[in-house]
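Re-run with default settings, no changes from the original entry. Doing this only to confirm the output is reproducible before filing.
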Amino acid sequence: MATVDSRLGTTNLERVQAIYAAFGSGDVEGVLAALAPDVVWSNAGPADLAYFGVRTGREQVAEVFAILGQEFDIAHFAPVEFFAAGERVAVLLEMRATIRSTGRSFTEDLVHVWTFGSDGLVTRLQDIQDSAGVAAALRP
């Protein structure tokens, strides 16, 4: 059975905070290591845009980070508030970015809902946002 790296913390809240710290420092491998092998990563939005959709497994989640790295010039991405209850942690976030291919910028508030398994690994991420602004910025 996989176990969580102790550097990620001992509570689900600490683990989520460590995941954001890893993302903020560009440590995508650190983020992926916190995910269960069969994690479900859901980012609701228009099906015709590669950034959105449901991915299953670390390899498919890595594709999301590849898209972020190629398409998004992120000026600001920050957790604002954390809510922890049992196996779930919800996070309010702020994001400002420019899409490299279109030059369009967007600002959004979003919510991430993280669900953890008994082994301390993330089994599901739900990215909840008003996707219209991001979609408009992504479209040519």
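The two ends are 45 Å apart (CA to CA). The chain has one domain: 8-138.
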